[in-house]
Write a structure and sequence with these properties.
This protein is an alpha/beta fold and 210 residues long. It has four helices and eleven strands, in the order E-H-E-E-E-E-E-H-H-E-E-E-E-E-H. The longest helix has 17 residues. The chain is globular and about 50 Å long.
């Protein structure tokens, strides 16, 4: 598997084009699996379950995308990890639920390295943290697509984005809870530090698929 890290912001359309090509090449045995760490300029994306009424404002470009899920925001201060894996090779029997569990575990293990307790919540996509006042906020999002048992799209972790940018949407269709970041939780983390943690925890999160 190869790791690709982009230092400059990547336009969303360019990222999709790259993933489409790479996923096809993985399926055909022409390319290795790939995890791509990057940052996008400010955008909103609408997944296959997105509802028009959940787009509250159009301050940034809105992209229709083939991943699962609803509306989400990407932008500066948020680390995106696109995960292009051959699920047929990673499972005796391909299992999408197990794959999503592993993505969640990857985020949880990574956050734990910075003393942040990320948690799953039944019926709520993504990873959540309990705030000091007892409320719950989302710190990481998950949205994937599978084509011929090769995955793409992936996860995003809020490092230090402008949280007001999430106000233009109902994130993932969930109105009752907020959005937070590592910085808002008092963690001054660089992309380099987060990337190192993501690399270290990836095999731990995905070993159960072997």
């Amino acid at each position: 598997m190869k790791l690709k890290i982009s230092k400059n912001r990547v336009d969303y359309e360019d990222a999709i084009s790259y993933m489409e090509r790479h996923v096809a090449d993985i399926h055909d045995g022409l390319e290795d699996e790939c995890v791509w760490l990057l940052e996008h300029p400010p955008i909103y994306t609408a997944g296959t379950s997105a509802k028009e009424e959940d787009l509250l404002g159009a301050d940034f470009p809105v992209y229709q995308t083939g991943r699962g899920g609803e509306h989400t925001y990407h932008g500066p201060g948020q680390r995106v990890a696109y995960v292009m894996l051959n699920l047929k090779k990673r499972y005796r029997t391909p299992d999408i639920k197990h794959f999503i569990w592993s993505l969640e575990q990857w985020i949880i293990l990574t956050l734990a390295r910075f003393d942040i307790k990320g948690e799953r919540r039944e019926g709520r996509v993504g990873i959540w943290v309990v705030m000091p006042d007892g409320s719950e906020s989302k710190i990481a999002a998950i949205g994937i697509r599978i084509r011929r048992w090769v995955s793409y799209h992936g996860i995003s972790i809020n490092v230090n984005p402008d949280l007001s940018h999430f106000e233009g949407i109902v994130p993932c269709g969930i109105k009752e809870h907020g959005v937070t970041s590592m910085h808002a939780l008092g963690k001054d983390i660089s992309y380099e530090e987060l990337d190192e943690a993501l690399q270290a925890t990836f095999p731990l999160a995905f070993k159960a698929q072997k």
